[in-house]
Fold this protein.
Amino acid sequence: MPIFLSQLFLIILFSISSAQAKSYFSADKIPPDLLDKPLGQNSAEYKSEIEQIIKLQKHVSRAEIEKAQSEAQLSIELMTKAVDPKLSPQNFPQLYNLLERSFDTMISVNDDAKKYWNTKRPYLVDKRIKLLVSPANNPAYPSGHTSASYILAKILGLLIEKRSADFQKRADEIANHRVVSGMHFPNDLKGGRQLALLVLGGLLQNNEFLVDLEKAKKELRAAEAAEIKRQIK
């Protein structure tokens, strides 16, 4: 098969799998009250976090703002390609099937938790806090950008152990940008990280996830072996 046709086939295959992507389990498997309660608006910690955001915004660079804006619409490729540009859906359809389904599971659980806790975003609480990215009309706690980027980092770290720290660093970067942009309190990030670990625990007990994880492992190993063979030639 010509190279361009094989690439087209992979693109179509990924498009179909993405359209059919479904959560590994329903959101009600992870009750929102398993999370620590968000900070109360009258607490000293809450007020301290407001001041922390204001201080961060005074020193934020234009480059950092632009990066936060580019991450406003979270996607899997913001995690994968930032670490390795070769990690594309065209090159790794099995990997992306796994990540898409895990991402959908995480977002579904996170959305339920947001509705349950129903907290306001920093820029809506204090007028001194600027909104540096596009606004969102849903609650703040827990941070969806944090939970989604963290679960992707954990799964990618399981698959590509030598880049685990790089994936984690990227997840931290995405999460921290949500604070400096006025969208989240640091405590929202804490809740997002906590929820990501809860969902990861559920995934690691899910048979469909484990099957897909193994398929992604084989795909990555095959690609690595092919690259080694190419370099020897």
